[in-house]
Design a protein that fits this description.
The chain is built from 7 helices and 6 strands; from the N terminus they run βαβααβαβααββα. The protein is α/β, with parallel strands linked by helices. The strands form 2 sheets. Strands 2-1-3-4 form a 4-stranded parallel sheet. It is globular and about 70 Å long. The protein starts with a strand and ends in a 19-residue tail after the last helix.
């Protein structure tokens, strides 16, 4: 499910959504920034909003990023800006096709590249596309990618991660070959 944050009045965007609704079935809520401020200014309400939707889109006509979608909200969601200059339906479709790579000072990154309704072939194409587009931005290209996992939630809300790629650290060492074994562990001293 998707929520779109728009400039006021939200009725204009709800009407545009209703006109395009057969092709955009995942959009469940449209809220403008003034109603967002009025209804979700409390931290508990903001948390429940963040967890109520799978994706948040921020309309490109907003003059500044909504302050309520910062801080703790970003620990649950990373909203996607809708591109300007095209029709409402086209900008939503382009935003759906956007993979956000949030960097918040950590050495790992989580990127949503699909959903449960995609086929394995479509998921593979999304992973390949993400890696092809991400590698040029890394200092050592694809050598900086240490592992890739597919993560999916269970019915109880717990996540399971399936590793599909792990960097070979032995071959990355100077002069090492893949046939070499790991160095022997040091014995601990007992007194």
């Amino acid at each position: 499910d998707t929520c779109i944050v728009t400039p006021p009045p939200q009725r204009k965007f709800k009407d545009l959504l209703e006109a395009a609704s057969p092709s955009l079935p995942n959009v469940k809520k449209v809220i403008d920034v003034t109603k967002l401020q009025a209804k979700h200014s409390e931290p508990v309400a903001r948390r429940s909003l963040a967890t109520a939707f799978d994706l948040f889109l921020v309309h490109g006509d907003l003059k500044q990023y909504p302050k309520l979608l910062t801080g703790e909200f970003l620990t649950h969601q990373t909203p996607v800006w809708m591109p300007k200059g095209s029709s409402f339906e086209d900008s939503i479709t382009k935003a759906f096709a956007t993979a956000v790579v949030p960097r918040r000072g950590f050495s790992n990154v989580t990127v949503r590249i699909g959903h449960a309704n995609l086929t394995p072939t479509e998921l593979q194409a999304n992973v390949n596309s993400l890696l092809d587009q991400l590698a040029p931005w890394l200092s050592r290209g694809s050598d900086d990618i240490l592992s890739v996992h597919l993560v999916g939630p269970s019915a109880t809300g717990r996540c399971a991660a399936l590793p599909i790629f792990a960097h070979n650290f032995v071959s990355a060492l100077p002069g090492a070959t893949e046939d070499e074994e790991a160095p022997p562990k040091k014995k601990s001293r007992t007194k």
